[in-house]
Amino acid sequence: MEKTPTVLDEMNDRSREVFRRVVEGYLANGDPVGSRTLTRDFSEKVSAATIRNVMQDLEYMGLLGSPHVSAGRIPTQVGLRMFVDGMIEIGDPTDIDREKIDATMGDNGADVSGILDRVGSALSGVTQGASLVLTPKHEAPIKHIEFVSLSQDRALVVLVFSDGHVENRLFTPPPGQTPSSMREAANFLNALVEGKTISELQRTITLEINQRRQEIDTLARQLVESGLALWQDDGEHPERLIVRGRSNLINTEGEAENVELIRQLFDDLERKRDIAEFLELADGGDGVRIFIGSENKLFSLSGSSLVVSPYMNADRKVIGAVGVIGPTRLNYGRIVPIVNYTAQLVGKLISNRS
């Protein structure tokens, strides 16, 4: 199948070089780039007037813009996207960056949540941006389920996972429960549970209850459904969104109105308003994904960019994500390999502990 030519493919060498140098200059220091700056070390001998004409053409194409009354140009969001997709050179993380991330994984005795906390801090420190780490829910297969009555209005569901992990979750059972109905509910669940994670078991239970409504006692069915509702809630160990380094982003942006937008972004994140969408962003494709400004509604308000990568368990199932937020002028060539490397390390860590 023949590849459809892009705007980048149709540019001549001079236009491509002007565009690349303007973007690289902006990413390096955040300032507009003028024609006189470009003529100093351009690959061919051209006048500033010629460069200005090329820059005007690129502005007409929607790739460059003129901030305020400046004679220089900066890339637009469309221009940044085209640069990231077609011109950026992505290598491996530097040895120094790799060592800093590796150091957070060194303590094998720490629990996963503690390590992921340190990963978030390391990411924000290495990148000088804000880091996001979405921790996984416990997704090991369940081995056994038990219901324990504590009082008339309190009961405990005990979940024993195949990896030895045990979770106890309190809930309010339907009225009238008896030891017999609790045993029947547990037997019903344990007959279905083998090899299934909580999310897989939820779907199976709903289907089985609908098909076998007459076979299971009303009280036992109510108990199962009450427990099911609990599992669909956050429980005691929900996925968490760890945010680190917010001051890095605020200090980078500087302007008062930008600071307020960024504060609002972090308030939204800390209230987990879009936590499900964040994981869906990572789950939408393999490897690192880059969202620039308004390409993602979660970050459009602050005008920030997000570099995010999913991490997977041993079954190659996406269970969480790591990412970095920064201004649109992120050093993408450096940040992308750092995020990718970190996601791979976290995935290995989770897989080795499963």
Structural class determined from secondary elements: alpha+beta
Number of β-strand runs: 10
Tell me the fraction of residues in β-strands, as a range: 15-25%
Number of spatially distinct domains:
3
What is the CA-atom radius of gyration, in angstroms? 26 Å
Specify the number of helices.
Answer: 15
Q: Quick check: average pLDDT?
A: 78
What share of the residues lie within helices? 40-55%
CATH structural class of the largest domain? Alpha Beta
CATH topology of the largest domain: Beta-Lactamase
Largest pleated sheet? 5 strands, antiparallel
Distance between the termini: 42 Å
Q: Going across the major beta sheet, what is the strand order?
A: 7-3-10-9-8
Low-confidence stretches: 232-237
Task: Note the run of SSEs as H and E.
Answer: HHHHEEHHHEEEEHHHEHHHEHEEH
Shape: elongated
CATH superfamily of the largest domain: GAF domain
GO molecular function, one term: DNA binding
Organism: Sulfitobacter marinus
Family: Belongs to the HrcA family.
InterPro entries: GAF-like_dom_sf, HrcA, HrcA_C, WH-like_DNA-bd_sf, WH_DNA-bd_sf, WHTH_transcript_rep_HrcA_IDD
